[in-house]
Amino acid sequence: MKLNLIEEKIEVELEIILVKNKNITNDIEILEKLDFQGEADTTALLPELGKLYVGCGEPQSDNIRCAVAGAMRIFATTNFNEALIEASNDEFLREIVEGIELGSYEFKKYKSKKDDKKKTKKTINILVSKVEPNIIEIFEDAINLTNSVNMVRDFVNTTPEDFYPKIMAKKAKKIATQNNLELKIFGEKYFKEENMGAISAVGRASRHDSRLIHLTYKPENALKKIVLVGKGLTYDSGGLSLKPADFMVTMKADKSGGSAVLGIINAVSKMKLPIEIHAIVGAVENMIGGDAYKPDDVLVARNGKTIEVRNTDAEGRLVLADCLCYAQDEIKDFDYIIDYATLTGACVVGVGHYTTGIMGNNIELNNKLQECALRSGELATVLHFNKYLKKTIKSKIADICNISNTRYGGAITAGMFLDEFIKDENKQKWIHCDIAGPAYVEEVWGCNPHGASGAGVRFSVEFIKNLISE
Ligand code: BES
Ligand code: ZN
Ligand code: ZN
Q1: pLDDT band at 1; cut points 50, 70, 90
Q2: Which CATH architecture has domain 158-468?
Q3: Residues near 376 by Cβ (< 8 Å), separated by ≥ 6?
Q4: pLDDT of residue 388
Q5: What is the model's pLDDT at position 169?
Q6: CATH code of the domain occupying 2-131
Q7: Among 317, 343, 393, 401, which is best to mutate for testing ligand 1, by the most ligand atoms less than 8 A from CB?
Q8: Which of 288, 308, 309, 313 maximizes ligand 1 atoms within 8 Å of its Cβ, making it the mutation to test the pocket?
Q9: Does the reported pTM lie above 0.85?
Q10: For ligand 1, is residue 412 a contact (CB within 6 Å)?
Q11: Domain residues of the chain, as ranges?
């Protein structure tokens, strides 16, 4: 999609009209015939008049974003090539741009027939009062953010045959080159040297070697330093505790946390925000084979803690354990450490497909991230730790067990497992985000397509932006 900012209304093939509060002022008769009342999630295309009406309910941020995304899906099915949309009083410009970019995303990599007649790049003109610096900044920030979200969607949607740890490292390299970031990549040799027995075990049966990726964005005069850690399971078969067939499908999306972390550092560096960011990804494939790690194994993580493996499908927490230790050993004096993972099916059961579970020891900080999520157009909710659930991950033979002794509260027990690998001085700086629900949904929802959504990118950039004015 090509986007232009314009100051004066021009003649175009299609005008997109946002109807707020069901307030229809023109074309009343024909819209009545179509029974279009301007409710949220409804549209009316009047091709002969060159108009597309979109209902958005109350004029709130996410209603506008989702309405515009809905309009994009209709626009995409037509042969109209140029459209206009008005940001009246420059209000909701950011949401309009986000709705356009997020709503028009399509993943066509594996379609053999490319849609010839719709091949031409479509254009949308956004009418603002004046194309001045502050308007241009809002526009460009929204483009950088949504391009990063769409990049993450591409990563996650790509099949495990085409996207394995080495490829993830290659993508990180490309991001580093484009944005002038520092990049370190480690493999098995380093895991052995540094006693990272957890990440090492999970990837052992795969024909693809594991990677730990560390990208750094270091602006001059950084106001804060943030560490991001992502679960990058390029495929999760479950390992020897093999997943049932129906549950294995979509597990290409188990790299969503690691991909989000790459998307966030990409967005923040493109926006040139004055915040230092470290993005760490544990890129690993969890497979079966004669060399696979087993239920009954005891692993030793980088911090020396021993872990009894009772289920090889609880692999994400093992990879994250070593990545979190690496981050806390190697990065000094950071302000926050946030991890992202499609960690548990239990989180999806608990809060539904559309919501991220936020956990940690600092409730105030968790609440702050939840607020940022809602402002950014993502859903998130805080799940609280407690001392009773903490007891359920004890092990009789090692320091800790990789699964709980109860099937209830699985999102929280997974979060509390990670807490075992957070140093005392960092307990209040840490947030865990379980994105198992929203990262990959097999239906269109809001401004998200079928498949990968890019969950975590928007709320994190919102959180990071807010640190500047603190
Ligand atoms: N990657 C899965 C979690 C998941 C499930 C993500 C559904 C997205 C959708 C994770 O590695 C896993 O398998 N977790 C197990 C943990 C269990 C063995 C304690 C789960 O949730 O069943
Ligand atoms: Zn698993
Ligand atoms: Zn997993």
Answers
A1: very high
A2: 3-Layer(aba) Sandwich (3.40)
A3: 458, 459, 461, 462
A4: 98
A5: 99
A6: 3.40.220.10
A7: 343
A8: 313
A9: yes
A10: no
A11: 2-131, 158-468
